[in-house]
């Protein structure tokens, strides 16, 4: 039987880790607002910088928790690329052991390299996967949770419907399920929870926030564009990703002539940072983003939307009578 999630949350949301543009400011703001804040360790160019970030986040979240008079301050998380090309994994994992983030999210590789370290201090491991085969491997590795990155997600994206993905993984996994892919409002959160998710990944929704490190032009593009302005291609990083067409055009790249994929390489390098700095990722949920706001304001709105969707569900459930063929009239 599945255990209860060990952390109190205002809403079952993870401010998903976004390459380059998630910094301590966004993580801390998310945790203070009552949702999980997460960042990729690769956002730090050096181990010294990563240690500064972890220390800053840990101290800020602990201080906020001690002084919180309202809803619970949520835990923070780090995202580790466990692919063999990440030459810095060992050093990053040593800092994880020292600063003990409550949640570690693995991506682009097996979660096995981090399991012992995180379990030793009582943390939980969630494996970020894009298909059912990888979900099975993560379950076999003994992870606590699986994040089903589905069609519509920004950055490195999946191809499966969130509903189909959740249903399939729940057949063989009884841990905590996170789902992401085009969910950017409270109604989407409620729908995913009704479909079997425990947590919802939201990256794009927090891209145009004051605390996000995206440059102003990137945020404006998110506000001005819609789902039709996106293209999914493996030509940028070697893994299918969802990209804003106007950012490709600004780099002199024709979105309709991207060609095939490039070799996969997830080592932290200047060339990798440049690709993501100049070509901007985004998910299909950008349509609801109308302005640049603080994270706290976004979470307030999500809570109202979630409550409206929840109340609608209960109202409809009371109005619809489902006939039981085994009942006697």
Automatic annotation (TrEMBL):
<keyword id="KW-0288">FMN</keyword>
<dbReference type="GO" id="GO:0018580">
    <property type="term" value="F:nitronate monooxygenase activity"/>
</dbReference>
<dbReference type="InterPro" id="IPR004136">
    <property type="entry name" value="NMO"/>
</dbReference>
<dbReference type="InterPro" id="IPR013785">
    <property type="entry name" value="Aldolase_TIM"/>
</dbReference>
<keyword id="KW-0560">Oxidoreductase</keyword>
<dbReference type="Pfam" id="PF03060">
    <property type="entry name" value="NMO"/>
</dbReference>
<comment type="similarity">
    <text>Belongs to the nitronate monooxygenase family. NMO class I subfamily.</text>
</comment>
<keyword id="KW-0285">Flavoprotein</keyword>
<protein>
    <submittedName>
        <fullName>Nitronate monooxygenase</fullName>
        <ecNumber>1.13.12.16</ecNumber>
    </submittedName>
</protein>
<keyword id="KW-0503">Monooxygenase</keyword>
């Amino acid at each position: 039987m599945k255990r209860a999630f060990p952390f109190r949350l205002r809403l079952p949301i993870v401010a998903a880790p976004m390459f380059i543009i998630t910094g301590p400011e966004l993580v801390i703001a998310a945790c203070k607002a009552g949702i999980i804040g997460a960042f990729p360790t690769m956002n730090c160019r050096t181990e010294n910088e990563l240690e500064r970030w972890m220390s800053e986040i840990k101290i800020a979240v602990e201080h906020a928790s001690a002084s919180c008079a309202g809803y619970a301050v949520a835990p923070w998380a780090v995202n580790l690329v466990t692919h063999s090309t990440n030459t810095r994994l060992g050093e990053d994992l040593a800092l994880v052991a020292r600063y003990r983030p409550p949640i570690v999210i693995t991506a682009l590789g097996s979660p096995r390299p981090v399991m012992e370290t995180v379990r030793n201090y009582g943390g939980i491991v969630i494996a970020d996967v894009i298909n059912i085969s990888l979900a099975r491997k993560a379950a076999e590795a003994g992870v606590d949770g699986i994040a089903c990155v589905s069609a519509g997600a920004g950055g490195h994206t999946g191809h499966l419907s969130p509903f189909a993905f959740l249903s399939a993984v729940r057949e063989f996994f009884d841990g905590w399920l996170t789902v992401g892919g085009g969910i950017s409002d409270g109604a989407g959160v409620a729908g995913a929870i009704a479909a079997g998710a425990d947590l919802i990944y939201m990256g794009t929704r927090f891209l145009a926030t004051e605390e996000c490190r995206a440059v102003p032009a990137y945020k404006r593009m998110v506000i001005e564009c819609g789902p039709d302005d996106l293209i999914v291609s493996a030509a940028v990083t070697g893994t299918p990703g969802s990209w804003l067409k106007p950012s490709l055009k600004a780099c002199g790249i024709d979105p309709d002539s991207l060609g095939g994929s490039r070799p996969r390489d997830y080592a932290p390098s200047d060339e990798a940072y440049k690709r993501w700095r100049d070509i901007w990722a985004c998910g299909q949920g950008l349509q609801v983003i109308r302005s640049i706001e603080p994270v706290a304001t976004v979470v307030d709105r999500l809570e109202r939307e979630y409550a409206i969707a929840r109340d609608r569900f209960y109202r409809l459930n009371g109005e619809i009578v489902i006939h039981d063929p085994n009942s006697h009239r």
